[in-house]
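Tip: read the tokens left to right.
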């Protein structure tokens, strides 16, 4: 868990927790690929809120600098801008998150400041091209449409949260990474060495 005042705050995304007494706590999202949010003390972000589940939600970072909120089947649900979510939801700068009675605000940080500036004198750019063998897999839940009609919101959120968390763990265990979430689907990629044997894809 990061605390206010860390140097990473100048570039990393962060969330602000608004306490009932009006005070604020800032959590910098850096140094990991995922942060759990909940009531238990072993969460990355601990919420002292009886309406929050022990492991309530997950903030998942992807390589394209995007962060998704994933509900882990919480009792009272997770909301982004007052809309309950059941699938991973891409967070935008300034989004308001409601977990139980707890209010958080997401900020994307200043990642854009890491990009080369176009201001000032033009400069020469050297482009290097490398050929890579890339494997892509898209996996989803069979019969997801039927599930949404048969299960209540809480159970659906629990099933989907477990699916996304376990799916991500399996992909990472086998050397891949989650590229994006598409509805109920996970898109995974594997990068092989430039001169890799094509059989590596198997």
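Filled-in amino acids:
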């Amino acid at each position: 868990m990061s605390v206010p005042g860390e140097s990473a705050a100048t570039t990393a995304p962060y969330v602000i927790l608004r306490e009932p007494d009006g005070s604020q706590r800032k959590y910098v999202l850096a140094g990991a690929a995922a942060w759990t949010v909940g009531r238990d003390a072993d969460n990355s972000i601990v919420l002292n809120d009886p309406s929050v589940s022990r492991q309530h939600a997950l903030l998942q970072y992807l390589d394209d600098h995007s962060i998704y909120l994933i509900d882990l089947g919480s009792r009272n649900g997770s909301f982004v801008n007052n809309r309950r979510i059941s699938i991973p939801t891409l967070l935008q700068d300034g989004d308001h998150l409601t977990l139980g009675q707890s209010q958080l605000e997401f900020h994307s940080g200043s990642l854009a400041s890491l990009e080369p500036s176009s201001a000032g004198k033009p400069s020469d750019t050297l482009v290097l091209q490398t050929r890579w063998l890339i494997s892509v897999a898209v996996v989803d839940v069979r019969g997801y449409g039927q599930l949404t009609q048969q299960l209540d919101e809480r159970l659906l959120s629990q099933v989907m949260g477990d699916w996304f968390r376990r799916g991500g763990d399996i992909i990472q265990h086998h050397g891949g990474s989650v590229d994006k979430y598409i509805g109920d689907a996970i898109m995974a990629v594997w990068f092989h060495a430039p001169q890799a044997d094509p059989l590596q894809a198997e």
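Residues 1-9, 111-123 have pLDDT under 50 and may be disordered. DSSP finds two helices and 14 strands in the chain.
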